[in-house]
Amino acid sequence: MPKAKAPRVWLDLDQAALDAAYDQSAYAPNMNHILDRCTMNSESVRERLGAPRRYAYGTAPIEKLDVYSTGKAVAPILIFLHGGAWRKGLARDYAFPAELFVHAGAHYVVPDFAPVQDVGGSLMPVAEQVRNAVAWIYRNAGTFGGDSDRLYVSGFSSGGHLAGVVLTTDWIKDFDLPADVVKGGLCCSGMFDLEPVRLSARSSYIRFTDEMEQALSPQRQLDMLNAPIIVAYGTLETPEFQRQSRDFAAAVKTSGKIVHLIVGEGYNHFEMLETLADPEGLLGRAALDMMNLV
Q1: 12: how many CB neighbours lie within 10 A of its CB?
Q2: Contact predicate 161/206, CB 8 Å
Q3: What does the DSSP 8-state code read for residue 6?
Q4: In the prediction, which pLDDT does 212 show?
Q5: 65 to each of 46, 81, 88, 189, 284, how far by Cα in Å?
Q6: What's the pLDDT score for residue 2?
Q7: Residues lower than pLDDT 70 in the chain
Q8: What pLDDT is stored for residue 1 in this prediction?
Q9: According to the model, what pLDDT value does residue 294 have?
Q10: Is residue 220 a contact partner of residue 248, using CB atoms and an 8 Å limit?
Q11: Dist. CA 138–CA 130, nearest whole Å
């Protein structure tokens, strides 16, 4: 008698397949090598540029951000939101792209924010921290020579999700700031609808609720999108990460907003991340173009 198929949980995926589709390790065997290299390259960048300025954007110990300053006054600002499945990662380990942007004439800013397990398993306070960091940068850009009218956000993986959250924030209602606080966004390899994420093994450490799923799914908040965005993914990423980016870009286009989709042929999840530090890399070139920098 043939073995019964496991029930489908999401699209054509059963539970095991869905869990695997939200776990990059099986699709990126060089994951640890690349992340170690990013950490080492970040240290090398600090040796060449000097230590970043460290500012508090809130009162919690984790609520600080690193600013790598360019020599130009009133310069544009690129905020980078790191990945790590919302549960790990530090700003200091994502300094490696700073050299590219500092030399191109932009400030490069990396906020720290709480791992989800430290805030009761909810993504709501994590999202609030990231939004508070962006608001602080906008209000205090002059402190480090930044131009608040040229503020851009980028993010990778779970940070790509958070960049999407920033881009779909109601800045007028929630922060008494202009609707177009952010002038452009780069969302790489992110998650933009939390329904399948909620159904996956990630629910073992994230306490999803209906409110969280709705409020923090950028694909459902496109009426709040006020900036052109770039969405990027690699063809060697998991099927769900690829689909999430394609569907998000398609939804943005359907909504009448400006979007550019970048597909990294032959790149896995973490290989896409490294291209942010290269002026000829997929993400590095896209970010410079977004900010009108050479």
Answers
A1: 9
A2: no
A3: P
A4: 98
A5: 15, 11, 16, 23, 21
A6: 57
A7: 1-3
A8: 53
A9: 78
A10: no
A11: 12
- Both tokens of 136, joined, read 């602080």
Inter-axis angle of helices 158-167 and 123-140, to 10 degrees?
60
What's the longest Cα–Cα distance across the chain? 74
pLDDT in tens, 92-150: 999 999 999 999 999 999 999 999 999 999 999 999 999 999 999 999 999 999 999 99
Strands across the sheet containing 53-56: 53-56, 64-68, 107-111, 75-81, 146-156, 184-188, 229-234, 259-264
**Total-model pTM:** 0.97
Coarse DSSP helix, strand, coil percentages of the chain, rounded to the nearest 5 percent: 45, 20, 35
- Residue 26 has a pLDDT of 85
Listed in sequence order, the residues at least 6 apart from 60 whose beta carbon sits closer than 8 Å to its beta carbon are 114, 129
CATH of domain 8-290: 3.40.50.1820
- The two structure tokens encoding residue 211: 């409110």
Residue pair 56/66 in contact (Cβ under 8 Å)? The answer is no
Q: Smallest Cα–Cα separation from 133: which of 191, 67, 187, 194?
A: 67
Enumerate the β-bridge partners of residue 146.
Answer: 75
Question: Look-up: residue for tokens 């159904």?
Answer: 199
